[in-house]
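Lecture 7 notes: from sequence to structure.

We start with a single chain of 276 residues. Read the sequence below before looking at the structure.
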Amino acid sequence: MDELKLQQEKLLSMMKFFHQYCEEKKLTYIAVDGTMLGAIRHKGFIPWDDDIDLGMPRKDFQRLMRDAGVVGGKYYLEGPDSADERYCYPYAKFYDMGTTMIENTRQKPIRGIFIDIFPLDGLTDEEDKIDSSYREVQKYKNYLLLRTMNIRKDRKWYKNLLIRLFRLIPFKSFNEKILCHSIDTLCRKKDFDETRYGGNLLGFWGTREVMDRDIIGTPVLYDFEDTKIYGAEKYDAYLTKLYGDWRQLPPEEKRVAHHDYYLNLSMPYKEYETSK
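Now the structure, written as tokens:
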């Protein structure tokens, strides 16, 4: 079995555990982004994908965060309130403690392979105010990216220059942890269940992830590999909002994972950390 298939197999086991955990705790979640696309178009993982992304209404997300720490003996749940200075994400990650993954970010937290868990928040009741309402969130997301991204040879020179320049800013308000807190505060302003437009304000696709709450609706079970996971009720509207013609496969040269990390699927990350 190649490494990607083994990684997907381990992620699937994590997903099965997390799904059952949410069922028992009566927590609501949905597949988002590429995970939702994979569930509908491929009945599982997008063949070249190497992660799982989930969203949870903020109230459920906050309830989940009460259990931050070791879960089920072999998984670890970490969120925005993590005391680790290297954890610079305004959302949560659910790790397999039996593996090691080191993301190529400036902080390089040593953890395992993970499921990303994003809070779903409200934004506005008026469609024509989505862009203006989202602008402040996007600004702080960009600040955080500039603080956490690494210099890379395959990135445009002017982008690397911008990253270097931004790191020179001495203001304490641009500390990664403070930026995470600022983003979290901005996203929490409006309840997901009480505004017409909302969604994953922390997602890669920006305002494309902000949509009429009825599209997400009541989560529905969809086939995913040999199990079922929850997704948006109106899956076609959801995927069209994100991807346009989502049924069309990308060109073959773009069928690759876009993540950058060191990976060891057989070494627990605590062992890796103590061995260095």
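The chain has one domain: 3-121+198-275. Keep this in mind for problem set 3.
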